[in-house]
């Protein structure tokens, strides 16, 4: 499976998503995430690596956006900056109209815990906890009280309520990833950020995970930003941002995603 059919996509050089034309910093119809002039340099002097170079992008709310590119192209670095895990060397990131770059570590951590959900390639579940306890832990990290109904609802949304007493080692990779998604959405964040969420899964399980993302977008208006190596993902998401050597080389909008 390679590129999407030409009549279903619009490829833009400088699109609304990269456009510097979008100056608005509020969220009333504006982007949920906006990045402006993001450069990230690791190290100094002879050993310095420019992982991202002058990236501009706007992510519209209620969409699934995939960052795509080869290994080393800068996907994870960009995702870490968009989710306030890392600070850029230069540039600004606005989340819901508020600049998050330059905030203190504890302010950034508050935003991440309360307003963003994070999903990782390797699931990141706590082995000794059941699926239920892992999801409840997500609620506590967000500073909210454990609430049975809320936890079970999150597990229900990913189809894992029946297996909630099982520990991660008793679940398949796809099931573990679904629990990890339940943990990431239990505090009902507006933004879900997922680093290679389907990389460890076979194509059927991967599709199931993207289907869950689509349902979250439809039901709660959530925005999902993910990274992927998978060309097949282009058929499924709303926008694809392709990175090469720390630069955005193309942006594609899929007018009618398959799911
Ligand atoms: N902490 C770091 N120190 C030095 N260089 C780094 C660091 N993190 C990333 N890099 C470099 O920045 C570049 C981009 O890395 P990044 O992890 O963002 O790529 P990626 O597209 O996510 O790759 P992959 O698909 O393999 O995860 C690479 O050249 C990498 O070696």
From TrEMBL:
Q: What is this protein called?
A: ABC transport system ATP-binding protein
Concerning Pfam families, the annotation shows: ABC_tran
Q: Which residues cross the membrane?
A: none
Q: Where do the record's region annotations for Disordered lie?
A: 1-30
Task: Give this protein's Gene Ontology molecular function annotations.
Answer: ATP binding
Q: Which domain of life is it from?
A: Bacteria
Q: Which residues form the ABC transporter domain?
A: 33-259
Q: Which UniProt keywords apply?
A: ATP-binding, Nucleotide-binding, Transport
